[in-house]
Amino acid sequence: MTVTDTDFNGKFGLEVLREHVIPDILGRHQPDILYWAGKSLARKFPLASLDEAKDFFRQAGFGELTLERSAKGETVLHLAAPGLEHRCFKLEAGFWHSKNRILTVL
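and the corresponding structure tokens:
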């Protein structure tokens, strides 16, 4: 994201932190720490259904989460984050990993 992007929507500051500041601070440990942070974040935001998870992902700026298919013991989801394809999605992966374990038990 650059300053000249037309889809500003107040997210520029968060993108600067996520795409430039955090990688500089965490260095090579960024993927592991973001994954852990996503799992920690999931425990702080209890969700009871896939629909609530979809809403949370959208509202948190993670992107649009859609169910591709669900079969016995396997769920395939698609996370679309237009313009952010280059992002490290470990935060979202950690969040979903923790949340999926809880939603599966329910």
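(Above: one complete record from the training split.) The chain has a mean pLDDT of 83.
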